[in-house]
Amino acid sequence: MKILVINAGSSSLKYQLIDMDDETVLAKGICDRIGLDGSKIKGSNFKGVKFEKELRMHNHTEAFLYVTRALTQGDAAVISDMKEISAVGHRVVQGGAKFNKSMLVTDYVIKGIEELSDLAPLHNPAHVQGINACRAVFGDELPEVVVFDNAFHSTMPPEAYLFPIPYEYYEKYKIRRYGFHGTSHRYVSARCAQLMGRDIVGTRLITCHLGNGCSITAIKDGKVIDTSMGLTPLDGFMMGTRSGSLDPSVIIYLQEKEGWTPQETDVVLNKKSGLLGISGISSDDRDLEQAIAAGNERAQMASRLQRYQIRKFIGGYAAALEGVDGIVFTGGIGENSSIMREEICDHLGYLGIHIDHALNNEFVHGKEGKISTDDSSADVYVIPTNEELVIARDTKEIVESLAK
Ligand code: ADP
């Protein structure tokens, strides 16, 4: 069974075609700048054949047509007919409290995703565009499945998901912690238990997804009990350009002093803060590592602040879980920055957690493995995340259940 996995953004469309017989990626790529000047498609197939073409794409439907062409025609083609594709799985960022599991796409589901657009104004409308474009190109017969980014977090208890503001705002606007990166936390936590040779039931895990966006999740018995991102992906600890949690008064104070509108405040907190805001150099961890090596003090400060906040989250979640059996690092930084992992883990000795520095340096660039010492009280793993595979697996399961 071949499954097409789609991640549609407002001006982009990422795809992967996965052969579920052996879970290999046959082809992947991205349509970029949809509806803008300079739109293009680029991708590669499992044989390493790459392509890149500037093509005018006015909308997601046109982008889909180019994806179908890339899959079936030219040097990078991997199938001869789109009919070889059994189903499409879509990533959807916000499922709210309405959708706590992956769903077959129906008109009801599309309406539900649209209705949640208030909570994810940049993402949900784009996902609906992607779903509709897919229907326009493939027709109604091809099953489509949506996998919600926060469904995995739906097991959080109220003490983790409620914000201590008047309860009426939770009732009126559904303001609560939803969490994000759920598909990634789900993949790496299941994989971690597998690598540990343990049943996920009875296992306490802390999974750290550290990329441009960052979140940490506490997982007990395979169920999320707490996560750092909140109503939006702005909550938690500092990220590439996002501030993470702040004293809320900082925002009120700055709005008064600077005269910012809500939109201007949003831009500062989402796009100009975090590593970029403190360092004044870059939001990219690699740039900061270079600047630190050159002795730049603000880059050092940005990095120290982020690591300190991550350690506080790990300590807090160890308390929430009443102990920890495994810690996972994933995401662009978590998978690649051995310095970051070392500077976090070398301060976890009070929990009995120790890493082997040589092993830590070994696991970069997509390598998976354990970096903790044998006498460490918890196992520490580097696990490259694979959200597309989770989406493809859920899609396959739902499609197969339809056939029964
Ligand atoms: P996103 O949240 O956009 O999916 P990624 O998970 O791709 O982001 O992570 C991007 C981050 O990973 C950037 O800060 C980048 O610097 C960092 N990163 C990628 N490769 C390395 C590396 N080799 N060493 C250190 N950091 C890296």
- Largest beta-sheet details: 8 strands, mixed
How many DSSP E strands? 14
Widest β-sheet, arrangement of strands: 5-4-3-2-1-6-8-7
In DSSP terms (H or I, runs of 4 or more residues), the helix count works out at: 15
The hetero compounds bound to this protein are: adenosine-5'-diphosphate
The amount of helix comes to 25-40%
Rounded to the nearest angstrom, the radius of gyration is 22 Å
Secondary-structure element pattern, one letter each: EEEEEHEEHHEHHHEEEHHHHHEHHHEEH
Structural class: alpha/beta
DSSP strand (E) fraction? 15-25%
In short:
The chain is α/β, with parallel strands linked by helices.
Describe the secondary structure blueprint for this structure.
Layout: E1 2-8, E2 13-19, E3 24-32, E4 40-45, E5 50-54, H1 60-72, E6 85-92, E7 103-104, H2 107-115, H3 124-138, E8 144-148, H4 158-161, H5 167-173, H6 182-196, E9 204-210, E10 214-220, E11 223-227, H7 248-258, H8 262-271, H9 274-279, H10 285-293, H11 297-321, E12 326-330, H12 331-336, H13 338-345, H14 357-362, E13 369-370, E14 379-382, H15 387-403
Parallel strand pairs: 1-6, 6-8, 9-12, 12-14
Antiparallel strand pairs: 1-2, 2-3, 3-4, 4-5, 7-8, 9-10, 10-11, 13-14
